[in-house]
Amino acid sequence: MLTVFGIAAVGTMLLSYALEARRAAFVLVFALACLASSAYGFLQGAWPFGIAEAIWAVVAYRRWLARRAAERD
User: Fold this and answer.
1) Cβ(26)–Cβ(19) under 8 Å?
2) Are 13 and 33 in contact (CB under 8 A)?
3) Helix H or strand E segment including 38
4) Contact assessment for residue 15 and residue 7, using Cβ atoms and an 8 Å cutoff
5) In this structure, are residues 10 and 37 in contact, taking their beta carbons and an 8 Å threshold?
6) What is the mean pLDDT of the segment spanning 45-58?
7) Of residues 64, 20, 59, the one with CA closest to residue 38
8) How confident is the model at residue 5, as a pLDDT?
9) Is 59 in a helix, a strand, or coil?
10) pLDDT at 73 > cutoff 80
11) 24-44 and 47-72 helices cross at what angle (nearest 10)?
12) How far is the CA of 72 from the CAs of 26, 37, 49, 64, 67, in angstroms?
C-alpha cells in the first residue's frame, strides 16, 4: 500500500510539473504532491528524500504565491 501511495505522489508531481505553464493551480498541486512525496520518503525510512521533498514543497508553494499575485495584477 505504501508503494502505491509513493507512485501516486510522484506521478502527481510529474503530471502537475508538466502542466505548470497552463495554470497557477498546477503549481499548488505540485507543492501538495511534494508534501505527499515527502511523507512517503519519511514512511519508507528514506529521510534525506523526505527532507528534499519538503524543501521542494516550500519552494513550489512560494512560486505559487508569486504566480497567483502576478496573475491578479
Assistant:
1) yes
2) yes
3) helix 24-44
4) no
5) yes
6) 96
7) 59
8) 96
9) helix
10) no
11) 170
12) 16, 30, 34, 12, 9
